[in-house]
Design brief:
mainly alpha; two-stranded antiparallel ribbon; 2 strands; 77% helix; elongated; membrane
Length: 246
């Protein structure tokens, strides 16, 4: 076998679907974890500065955000390891399915491991759909505040409505308790909040984090299809009469 034929054979064993899914998964998780971590820090700063100036009123929220940041560290580490494992499993099953290395052989243990990855990937896919939906919540909250500020800057709005009567009350979202002071921002104060760097940065980072969660969902869907196909073919080829019933 010449060098060119050998290269073609090696390239035929590359699990391109798993490779694309791994790159997309790493990118999505990195965006979600990195941007989400910084955005949560900026959210705490905004709340402490403008909406809840008494520490005891938002102490529980601060603890929850710190816990979420630690969970983000765990998610990043887990998916880095899981992506590498799935990519390695993709190389193994692709080579076995295409029978690139001598005679085709598979074991019950190998098929069980492949089935376990299929099941685990389905579970993670469903879980990340929930994460994707949850990551859209802060985007919605920040968008409401940003759209209110944009409306107040409109000349037509200023002629018909008193700006100081326009308020955003974050207590209605359950973020801070109802006894938190001031709990809301109105008029020019609300406009000043929208002009702060913390608000601008946190808003856009939440959008990027949500997009990262969506990319991770797509990557897991690709993983599902690739692992399910490889497991099905491995199970089929393990049968002695596979050639006569294909």
């Amino acid at each position: 076998m010449g060098c060119f034929e050998c290269c073609i054979k090696c390239l035929g064993g590359v699990p391109y679907a798993s490779l694309v899914a791994t790159i997309l998964c790493f990118s999505g998780v990195a965006l979600f974890c990195g941007c989400g971590h910084v955005a949560l820090t900026g959210t705490v700063t905004i709340l402490e500065t403008h909406f809840s100036k008494v520490t005891s009123d938002h102490a529980m929220l601060t603890d929850v955000i710190q816990l979420m940041q630690y969970v983000i560290y765990g998610i990043a580490s887990f998916f880095f390891l899981y992506g590498i494992i799935l990519l390695a499993e993709g190389f193994y099953t692709t080579s076995a399915v295409k029978e690139l290395h001598s005679e085709f052989k598979t074991t019950i243990c190998g098929r069980c491991i492949s089935g376990m990855f299929v099941f685990l990937t389905y579970i993670l896919g469903v879980a990340w759909l929930g994460v994707f939906g949850f990551s859209a919540v802060p985007v919605f909250l920040f968008y409401n505040m940003w759209s209110t500020c944009a409306a107040m800057r409109s000349p037509m709005f200023n002629l018909t409505t008193n700006i100081e009567s326009i308020c955003v009350d974050v207590r209605q979202y359950g973020i801070i308790p109802w006894n938190a002071t001031p709990g809301k921002a109105c008029g020019s104060t609300l406009g000043d909040i929208c002009n702060t760097s913390e608000f601008y940065l946190s808003y856009h980072l939440y959008i990027v984090a949500c997009a990262g969660a969506g990319a991770t969902v797509i990557a897991l869907l690709i993983y599902m299809m690739a692992t399910t196909y490889n497991f099905a073919v491995l199970k089929f080829k393990s049968r002695e009469d596979c050639c006569t019933k294909f």
